[in-house]
Amino acid sequence: xxxxxxxxxxxxxxxxxxxxxxxxxxxxxxxxxxxxxxxxxxxxxxxxxxxxxxxxxxxxxxxxxxxxxxxxxxxxxxx
Length: 79
Known about the structure:
By secondary structure, the chain is an alpha+beta fold. It is built from 2 helices and 3 strands. It has helices at about 1-15, 50-55; strands at about 25-30, 40-45, 60.
């Protein structure tokens, strides 16, 4: 988990120091729903919105499908 936090911190630092052009970039996140049957959904947001989403438990998607959001896919898994 420490590695994920460091990687996320490094990514956020990159976003903070990037040029204004990066504001148009999109990032795919695993959005935590707190549902037992569907604990995650994939969402794509502006890079500007990443810090707000990460602050409440969402994380950068480790793959292109929602199945990659669970523990086996590298994400933190459901709480």
